[in-house]
Amino acid sequence: MLRAPDPRDIPLVFFMFEGESPKSSKLFNFLADGEKDYLKKIPGATRVSEKEVKVFLLPNAERKIILVGLGKSKEFIHQKGSLAMRMAVQTARKEKIKKFAFWVGRVGTPKETVKFFEGVATNAIMADFEFVKYKTPPKDGFSFVEEVQGISKSKDKNISEGFKRGMAIGEEVNACRSLANTPGGDMTPKILAQHAEDDSKGTKIKVKILKEDKIKELGMGGILGVSKGSAERPRFIIMEYWGGKKSEKPIVLVGKGVTFDTGGLNLKPEQAIYEMHMDMSGGSAVIHSMRAAARLGIKKNIIALVPAVENMPSGSSYHPGDVLKTMSGKTIEVLNTDAEGRIILADALSYAKKYDPRLVVDVATLTGAAMVALGQRYSGLFTPSQKLEAVFRKLGEETGDKVWPLPLSADFEEDIKGTFGDWANISKTRYGGATTAAAFLWQWAKDYPWVHLDIAPRMTTIEGDYLAKGAAGAPVRLLVRLLEEF
């Protein structure tokens, strides 16, 4: 929340540039005289470098202050501010601080101010998340920050608006993370579909769930084929949000919803199967991007499509060598049952055509090859449009859901041509797997502007994220910004 009080009873967080000390901040005036004197006596200890955090217990022993380094002022970008807020919240949690205050002020133009504090609030919410649903609470409870106060001399509607928006987005990122973290035994296609329905109540989102009989009627042989080995039957989740003009073509988000991926008959090795309950992270991301759009009242027409299946090995599983007929009529020659995500997405991309979309974005934890190419800090970006590539890179840098382009052209189609079907679900070569997977999806997405995001690199958090272990919630922030600005 934003207020202008005299917070002499709660911890304070100083965000400081290189070479600064706390006394150069306006927040210093909110310290008692004895606290000021205490800090002045140790000037060297109160200077912090970039990504450095220091905690001081003030002499009255009633509160602490946290110093967080921002680096050089000339090199400051908005993302450094968001990352610093993550560090502050994580430090507060370790110190069992329930609430703290920091100084806020305008950052550039009104629009820039809104965006900056939207990012700050989003990242504060993200840093305060930990998946504890299955843990026994400790005696004194889990350590979470309950309140972050922004202190200013006067109210600023742009800062307040940024905080309000950021809280909504951050809460949906965390809901996405919670959903993706849920163990496969408790997250089936049916449960994922029910979640989409329940989470849309009270919003303008309309949800339709197609069961197996309707999926068969539509000729979605890809979804039916992948799901054959599981006792859990498939679902096709359709979410519609008509927030724009009736004449406006919608943006369609497509999310991979494999609630658990064993690899099928091409069973994954032991070290690769553990986190495969998160193989529905793309589906979770588009579901909660939709909910964020509804909460923010975005004036666009938006559709979310999530093909939900479980990929299991059994006597009824689909086989290597099977040929599946998709909704579009094109056939897929199955060379590996562990390349199942692209098969179900083929049907979803065909269904997207029904909406005559102005843009389709599919989001999927699709390939380990994307991780090999990019590491774990960027999602893979594929599109035949240089204009869309530029838009997504820009929005990724602004929001923190960073993406990096990898090649996509008709040259790669030769690598995925089938022998007994139209297209093979894996390449003839072991190289460039992220691109050949994208080239495969492209065969079902040539009738509209299209972007593919391979979020396998960002499926889980890493140490430098300053977030709890588990699902990262990518790319909800990017998608929300896209839905507003595209």
Summarize this structure as a short list of keywords or feature phrases.
18 strands, three-stranded parallel sheet, elongated, 19% strand, Aminopeptidase, 14 helices, 486 residues, disordered N terminus, nine-stranded mixed sheet, alpha/beta, 2 domains, Leucine Aminopeptidase, subunit E, domain 1
What does this structure look like?
By secondary structure, the chain is an alpha/beta fold. Helix content is 34%, strand content 19%. The chain folds into 2 domains: 2-169, Leucine Aminopeptidase, subunit E, domain 1; 182-485, 3-Layer(aba) Sandwich (Aminopeptidase). It contains 14 helices and 18 strands. It has helices spanning 33-40, 78-94, 110-127, 157-181, 189-200, 212-217, 221-227, 270-273, 281-296, 341-352, 368-374, 386-399, 433-442, 476-485; strands at residues 2-3, 12-17, 53-57, 64-71, 99-103, 147-151, 205-210, 235-242, 251-255, 257-261, 301-311, 323-325, 331-333, 359-364, 379-382, 403-405, 423-424, 450-454. Strands 7, 8, 9, 10, 11, 14, 15, 16 and 18 form a 9-stranded mixed beta sheet that branches. A 3-stranded parallel beta sheet has the order 1-6-5. Residues 1-6 have low confidence and may be disordered.
